[in-house]
Amino acid sequence: MRERKPVVHASILGFDGQLTTFVPYEGPCYRCLYPQPPPAELAPSCGANGVLGVLPGIMGLLQANEVIKLIIEAGEPLVGRLLLFEALSTQFTQLRVRRDAEGCPTCGDGVDLEHTEFEDYEALCAAAG
Description:
Rossmann fold
């Protein structure tokens, strides 16, 4: 957000993947999508849960496609949409994600990013594990 640079985010676990594009001030941010980190017991590591071997490649290709759309300013980037991929059924689902203008501590109206201190998620996650 501070740098005003788009972020194309993908995640994988098991047989599932997620993809979205965050463009500051054009749509929701990561904190709008996930206001709080999940409890440790609901966020197993890839080592503990496993990942289907082709899933990183599939999600990486989709991620690269999003980046290309942003660079050439063509198509419809996934701003405000979360794309879910279920590898076992080979199905895609799209969910709408809205910007939380009133309550988001990162992109909400009136947030001063220059003077905002962000939570240390690395320390938070290490303490939970």
